[in-house]
Amino acid sequence: MSRGRIPHWADVTLVPLTSVVLAFIISGILIWAIGESPWGALKLMVEGAFGSSYGWGYTLYYATNFIFTGLAVAVAFQARLFNIGGEGQALVGGLGVALVCLYIPWPHWSLALIAASLGAAVFGAGWALIPGYLQARRGSHIVITTIMFNFIAASLLGYVLVNVLRQQGSQDPSSPRFPSDTALPKLHEILGVFGIPFSTVPPVNISLLIAVAMCFAVWFMLWRTRLGYQIRAFGESEPAAEYAGISPVRITIYVMLISGGLAGLMAVNSVMGEQQRLVLNAVEGAGFIGIAVALMGRNHPLGVFLAAVLFGFLYQGGAELALWTGIPRELIVVIQALVILFTGALDNMVRIPIARLFALRGAR
Amino acid sequence: MDLMVLVQVLDSTMRLATPLLFACLAGLISERAGVFDIGLEGKMLAAAFMAAAISYVSGNVWIGVVAAVGVSVAMALIHGLASITFRGNQLISGVAINFLAAGITVVIAQNWFRQGGRTPSLSGDARMARIDLPFANALRDVPVIGPIYHGILSGHALLVYVALLCVPLTWYMLFRTRFGLRLRAVGENPAAVDTAGVSVVALRCGAVAICGVLCGLAGAYLSTGLSAGFVKDMTAGRGFIALAAMIFAKWRPWHALGAVFLFGLLEAVANRFQNIDIFGFNLPVQAMQALPYILTVVILAGFVGRAIPPRAGGAAYVKEH
């Protein structure tokens, strides 16, 4: 079934929405099968995630993580590179944040934020550079190498936290707390300036604004710059791009640097914004959720933003579910899997019937 | 390191290599047919849960093994549906399978047993019994042969020997049967197979189903043979190690045996020793854990021989092309 059969608006809205609805229906059946009420669960999730500024705060905090990792996957996808290494790149990005915050005394959070963002992006980009280089120069498959680099990153971080950064006398494999001058202002403080009341509990912080800015920056880069054009051309057709004088090696390396940098930036939100220290599992699977977010968002920054908020809702709603019902948090992993399955792999299964519907309407 | 320790390490290498061997051969057959499968991990995990849960409920491990194979094949067919029938992205489908298994095993385990996503401990007939090879006890004290035969080769669960047997079987199937020839051809040049009047879809579905069976055995061994029960995320990256071993073996069955033994040995050594001193240089345990992945990257980069995957791998076959 050719792509041209569906209008563009349907391709970017109807197809992903249908996939999400299918994912929700199957998850509902699962909830029903384990003896809980799907309707009650949905209500609980919506109330838990959007019913209060407390819920919103957590939803937006998670969404911030997913915007970064979603953009990372989306940028790579634009060049037809499947970067599943977001998890590892974010872990190493966290190391960048920790080193900047621990070893340099910062007078003010704003300076620390700039430096930590740079540290996170550079470390994340560096971690993505090796698979990128190997793909571009030596032809090793980027999917396999990025998966391997996730595991290597986890081992590296384990080593650093146990043997290098761990506090004297502490059993806990984690870095010391960052100095309080590096604490990022939270959303309630920012909104408080305008007199808007917001819950003080959730860790949502100024990184949310950086994430939104990054959405815009990525959009601008992809659709308004020469590099972006080259990236998209390369993704559409590698031979054509090469014929047009676009170097595959250069594009692959640039894309992986940008992608890794974005994934690394996620650590600013989680490590600097929330935990204020580096722990073993600082990323908590957000690197992988980025895959679902990018697929659902059709690799467009606006789509990524919306999908990230949806997954933020799922994460926060899922936590509420686990708190109040017998449904474990892992339900969101199932929903995430179904979203990836339907939007990514079973794309044609969803698209072909929709295309038929449009063909029917057109024939009438 | 004395002889006793060496025997113990090699004995646990045998056990740790078994799930890797099953999964590695599973991936090998699937990829030889041109279907990339990074969902080995997920299929193994789902099978591990099913094996432990059904073994516990029924009290018979072999019923559990059958159930494990069943669930693993079902997931393999989802992968087949996505990547063969609907020509979806094989890598994305594999990623989805991994997440599906990671989530659904905990949700169901928690609902079923209420033990935080694990199954109760298995005992008695719900676990895989160890098998003593003939004359193992008699040969026990014979030097050299004794430790090797009694200490390392004998005393494993049946599936360990099944896994070893799968190596020549896979080799024979791939290189000495008509099915194997076609299966390899479909991974190299599906158009030629199609022209010859053989169904590409049927062959690939067959390969994916065999992959499901082997992953099922891998998972079942993991939860009922290697350990006594299922715990959350218990595959712990073994599916990816198996994938690494497959690349290491350059998609060849006998080499796969060597690769999984190497990776099993690394795991056994990392489990046995926390830090290793090599000529005064301290090798941390994390380095041992990362070694299989690093080796794979090095192999993939072509620094130690080229690893060339089947040519048509990763792409759906479209008849009109």
UniProtKB/TrEMBL annotation, chain A:
Residue stretches spanning the membrane: 12-35, 55-77, 89-106, 112-130, 142-162, 204-223, 251-272, 278-297, 304-325, 331-350
**Keyword set, alphabetical order:** Cell membrane, Membrane, Transmembrane, Transmembrane helix
Highest taxon of the lineage: Bacteria
Question: Recorded GO terms, molecular function?
Answer: transmembrane transporter activity
Q: How does the entry describe its membrane topology?
A: Multi-pass membrane protein
Example GO CC term: the record gives: plasma membrane
Chief place of localization: membrane
Claim: Transferase is one of the keywords in the record: no
Please name the InterPro entries in this protein's record.
ABC_transp_permease
Q: Where in the cell is it found?
A: Cell membrane
Q: Does the keyword Lipoprotein apply?
A: no
Q: What is this protein called?
A: Nucleoside ABC transporter membrane protein
Automatic annotation (TrEMBL), chain B:
Specify whether Metal-binding is a keyword of the entry. Answer: no
One GO location term (cellular component): plasma membrane
One example GO MF annotation:
transmembrane transporter activity
The UniProt entry lists the main location of this chain as: membrane
**Which keywords has UniProt assigned to this entry?**
Cell membrane, Membrane, Transmembrane, Transmembrane helix
Pfam families the UniProt entry points to: BPD_transp_2
Q: Name the domain of life this protein comes from.
A: Bacteria
Transmembrane region positions?
A: 48-79, 91-113, 148-174, 254-270, 290-309
Q: Which InterPro entries match?
A: ABC_transp_permease
Membrane topology term reads: Multi-pass membrane protein
Q: Where in the cell is it found?
A: Cell membrane
Q: What is this protein called?
A: Nucleoside ABC transporter membrane protein
In which organism is this protein found? Roseinatronobacter monicus
